[in-house]
Amino acid sequence: MKKTTFFVINALMVSIALAQNCDRAFSAANYSVAHTNKAYESNNVDHVREWTEKAMETFSEVEEVTANCGCDVVSEIAYQGFEACDKAQIEGTYERSRFYAKRAREKAKAMIIALSKCTNISIDNIEERHNTDGEVYASNDDYDVESTQNSLNYQQEELQRKQQELVEQQRILQKQLEEQAKQVEAVKQQRANELVQQKRIKVNAEIVLSEIQKNYEKLANSLNCTKALKAARISFIHTEDALEKESLGATKVYYANKLNEIIDKFNNSFSECANNW
User: Fold this and answer.
1) Which of 59, 71, 98, 103 lies at a 20 to 30 A Cα distance from 5?
2) Is residue 30 in a domain?
3) What is the reported pTM?
4) Do residue 204 and residue 104 come from a single domain?
5) Do 6 and 90 belong together in one domain?
6) CA nearest 39: which of 30, 28, 50?
C-alpha cells in the first residue's frame, strides 16, 4: 500500500513539475506575441526582419520547453511560428515579409491559447503576464475572433488579387478579340477590292473576246470556211456568282484559257479549210 501511494505521489509530483515547466513557457510565448506584433506593425522590411528575428528565439524556446513537458501541440505551433519568422527573414519585399510576420503573429496567439489549455491555466487568470508593451493577453474567445478576422481578411485579399487577375485576363482577351476583328475586317476589305478588280477584268475581257470572235467570223465568211464559223460559237461569259466564289488569279486564268481556246479552234478550222482549197 505504501509503495502504491509512493508511486501515485511521485507521478503526481512529476505531473506538477511538468505543468510548472510548461507554465514557464508563458513568458517566452508572451514575448513571441509582442515581437510578432512589432514586426507586423513595422513600416519597413528591415524592422520586420529585426522583430521576427527576435521572435524566432522565443518561438524556439517555447518549442523546446513544451516538447519536454508534454505539450506537443504547443511545441508544433511554436515550430510553425518559427518557420513563419524564418520566411519573413528571407523574403525580398516588405509586403511579403510582413505577410509572414502576420502569420507568425497568428501562430504566437494560437500558441498562447494552446499553452493555457495544456497547463489548465486560464488566460484570464494569469496575472502580470504582459508583453513588452504592457498589454495583457485577451481571452481565448478574443483570440479566436481576431484569428478568424485575420483569416477572413487574408481570404478577402486573395479574392481581390484573383479578381484583379481576372480583370487583367479579360482586358488581354478583349484586346485579342479587337485585333482579330481588325484582321477579319482587313480580309473582308481585301476580298472586296479583289472582287472589284475581277468585275473590271470580266467586262474588259468579254468585250475583247467578243471583238476577236467577230473578226474571226468576218474572216471565215470571206474565205467561205464554214468550219471556222462553227468554231466561233464558244461561250466565254462568266457570271458574277462565279466571280464571288473564285480568287482574282482564278478569274485571270479563266479568261486567258478562253482566249487560247478561241484562237486554237479557229486556227485548226482554217487549216482544215486550207487543205480543201
Assistant:
1) 71
2) yes
3) 0.42
4) no
5) yes
6) 50
Cα–Cα–Cα angle for 108, 114, 120, nearest 5°?
Answer: 135
Q: How many CA atoms within 13 Å lie on the side-chain side of 170?
A: 6
Claim to verify: residue 111 and residue 190 sit in the same structural domain? no
Is the pLDDT at 93 greater than 70? The verdict is yes
Q: Say which amino acid occupies 34.
A: A
pLDDT at position 14, please?
A: 37
- Look at residue 136 and give its three-state secondary structure: strand
Residue 35 CA from chain centroid, whole number: 36
Q: Is the dihedral of CA 105, 108, 114, 120 positive or negative?
A: negative
Domain shared by 254 and 186, yes or no? yes
Task: Note whether 106 and 158 are within 8 A (CB).
Answer: no
Report percent pLDDT > 90 for the chain. 40
* CB neighbour class for 36 (10 Å; exposed up to 12, middle 13-18, buried from 19): buried
CA distance 8 to 126: 28
Are the C-beta atoms of 45 and 94 separated by less than 8 Å? yes
Q: Are residues 110 and 179 in the same domain?
A: no
Which domain does 181 fall in, by range?
Answer: 174-276
Query: How many CB atoms neighbour CB 196 within 10 A?
Result: 11
Q: How many domains does the chain have?
A: 2
Same domain, 15 and 117: yes
Backbone angles phi, psi at 131, to 5 degrees: -90, -175
Reported as a pLDDT band with limits 50, 70 and 90, residue 121 is low
Average pLDDT, the chain: 80
Q: Are residues 92 and 188 in the same domain?
A: no
